[in-house]
Each structure stands twice: as structure tokens, then as C-alpha cells.
Amino acid sequence: MANAIISPQYCAPATHPIDLIITTERTVRDNFTIRDINDNIVFTVKSSLVTIVTPRQHRFLFDANGNPILHLRRSLLAADDCWKAYRGESTEPKDLIFTRKRSSLMQLRTKLNVFLANNNTGVCDFTVKANLSGQSWNVYIGESNNVVAQINKKLGTIVSREKFMVTVSPNIDYAFIVALIVTLD
After folding, report:
1. What is the DSSP letter of 94?
2. Average pLDDT, stretch 60-74?
3. 21: domain CATH number?
4. Which residues contact 39 (CB under 8 A, 6 or more apart)?
5. Is residue 11 part of a domain?
């Protein structure tokens, strides 16, 4: 059974994991290109320019055809590093898919809790934990030891861009995992 959060069409087949490469384009805005191992574009992420007038950071996840899938929004005034994901380009509460925030303000290594929109238990649905160096992360189901995605950051150089190498387990929504990754920085 597939664990669709964004859409069943983005769930990896049951027979094998999905490997993705996320390239960061650091300019005035942070944009990302997500490719499969055959170098096909799977998604793109465009960021809006943050201004004093709009103290929010916005990122938009698009499919390979340029159709909007998600609107990721972060308040720069929030102390808990909170991102909210909405369907399409919406910010309406009815279109909320998930909320991602730090588990606590004081952390030796990053731990993020993810709550799906219909969760009102106070217990997170997914957890993202960094290793001590902060260069790799695992995504777990809730507070369990069940890893559903592994993320490794490859630092860029003057001539190469920063990359995330991602492996998403079978039956897991890889659009959801990509949305989490582009909120890590």
C-alpha cells in the first residue's frame, strides 16, 4: 500500500526505492532542480524574494511540466523554524497538507517534527533527524526507527553546486520528501 501524502502518482513503486538528485541554485533566491538518476527533471522549486513588506519565505514545488504542486511557506518571525505546505499555490487552511517545525529550540543536532494536516494528536507523523555533522538526514515514520528516506548533502565548490543525494523507500511519496528537503536550509 502506498503512503501518498501529496499524491499517489508520486509514490515510489513497491519493487524499488527512488533515487533523486536535488541541485541548489543559490542566487538572490534559492531555487532547486530535482532530477532522477537518468538526469530527467522530476520537479523544480522556485523561491520568492523575501522583503520587509512580506516577512515570509515562499517556495513553490512544480512538476516536470511546470504545474504547481505545493506552496511552502515559512514565517521569518517564528522561533520554531515552522514551514507549512499547501496544495497548489494556496494558503487556505483547507489546503494545508503538513506542518514542519523544530522539535525544540535548543538542539545539538537538527530534529524536525512533521505533522500532517489531519493530525490533532500532538504526536508527529514523521521525524527528520540530522547526523552530528549536519550533512545527512534520515526521515522516519513518527518517532519510530523506520527510515523512509535518506538524504546526503554534497557541498558545492566554486565550479559545482550544492547537491542533495536522496533515496526514498518504496511506497513513499517522494514529492513529500522533496518538500521536506527544500526546507532544511
Report:
1. G
2. 95
3. 2.40.160.200
4. none
5. no
At residue 16, what is the residue type? H
Query: Where are the strands (E) in the chain, listed by range?
Result: 18-26, 30-36, 41-47, 56-63, 68-75, 83-87, 96-102, 111-116, 126-130, 136-141, 147-154, 163-168
Residue 115 domain flag: no
At a CB cut-off of 8 Å and minimum separation 6, what does 33 contact? 22, 23, 25, 41, 43, 44, 45
Note the pTM of the prediction, 2 decimals: 0.89
Distance in angstroms (rounded) separating the CA atoms of residues 74 and 174: 21
Asked if the structure places residue 78 within a domain, the reply is yes
Residue 133 confidence (pLDDT): 74
Q: Has residue 105 been placed in a domain?
A: no
Q: Which residue has the higher pLDDT, 15 or 53?
A: 15
Cα radius of gyration (the chain): 16
Residue 109, pLDDT > 70, answer no
Nearest one of 90, 94, 74 to 180, comparing CA atoms: 74
Counts for the chain of helices (H) and strands (E), in that order: 1, 12
Domain that holds residue 162: 17-100+151-181
- What is the three-class DSSP state of 178? helix
pLDDT at 18: 95
